[in-house]
Amino acid sequence: MEYGQLRTLRELRDRGSIAAVAAAFRVSPAAISQQLAALQRSAGVALTRRQGRRTVLTDAGLALADAAVDVMSAMSAARDAISRYQADAAGTVTVSALASAAVAFFPALLASPLPGSPALTLTDFDVEQADYSLLTADIDLVIAHRLPERPWPRTVRAIPLLEEPLDLVVRRGHRLDRPGPAGLDDLRSAEWIHVHEAFPLADSLAPLYANGGREPRIRHRVNDWAITARMLAGSDCVALMARHTGRAYLGTDLTLRPLAPELAAHRAIDILARPETLRRAAVGAVVDALRDHARTLTGENPAIRV
């Protein structure tokens, strides 16, 4: 039994005729008759009968119409509860992020005075790109990343936070530690530390070598930039690291170098959520705080060699 069908039955009891119900709902009498017929099939008993030229309720129909009032009252209470929940700016908001985004956003989020002072529950998740949207079933806001040409599925809402260049990162004194953008000739013999396959940035090296007729030499696969940074400091390997959110991993022993324009790579960081989640006032306050902080991350990076 569907809510709309029960409502139609209740209105027939109260308004007295199919024509009156149709006029109230601004539909045709035939549409009302179809709803009643569908409800009767679900109930398995006759709910209406003809009385002269009018359609009236049977005893079973009257009993179900009375029950429909209770159903409608419960639905009204549920809608009111949802409205209060959505308007509650002090509710709990759960947020997840991949490690590099967590380093960039979580401390600022905890330090920000948010309207209504919602309670925050923060966690880190680094998953394959196809799995980020699935996290929104259990987490209010999922901070995820992708290559710009790889959009998220339409099952979730995606709110852009920032798009940032991926730069070459090497240790100080490395043969590639020099001014100017890194070109294909610089990278031909490079050995890389790169992310695992199927993760969002896995394909970021492919365009760098697309015109060179060879595959990149990936020596190590590590998803955590903190680990990558320490490995780079003690080796001749190179890696890609995001210019703005990656700066937290750079000590004085590492340097960033932009890629040549024809090799330029970027990553996008977005907030993923289910559409209904974004209707909550507490969630909206957190989204606003994240977007405000994203705007502060795009200043000049003193670690970059230009």
Describe the protein's architecture and organization.
The protein has 306 residues and is an alpha/beta fold. The chain has 2 domains: 3-87, Arc Repressor Mutant, subunit A (Orthogonal Bundle); 92-296, D-Maltodextrin-Binding Protein, domain 2 (3-Layer(aba) Sandwich), CATH 3.40.190.290. Helix content is 38%, strand content 22%. It is built from 10 helices and 11 strands. The strands form 3 sheets. Strands 3, 4, 5, 6, 9, 10 and 11 form a 7-stranded mixed sheet that branches. Strands 1-2 form a two-stranded antiparallel ribbon. It is elongated and about 95 Å long. The N and C termini lie far apart (68 Å). Residues 301-306 have low confidence and may be disordered.
Overview in brief:
The protein has 306 residues and is α/β, with parallel strands linked by helices. The protein has helices at residues 3-15, 18-25, 29-43, 59-87, 99-111, 129-132, 184-187, 206-209, 225-233, 281-296, and strands at 48-51, 54-57, 92-97, 119-124, 141-146, 157-171, 191-194, 217-221, 239-242, 254-257, 265-273. The protein folds into two domains: 3-87, Winged helix-like DNA-binding domain superfamily/Winged helix DNA-binding domain (Arc Repressor Mutant, subunit A); 92-296, D-Maltodextrin-Binding Protein, domain 2 (3-Layer(aba) Sandwich), CATH 3.40.190.290.
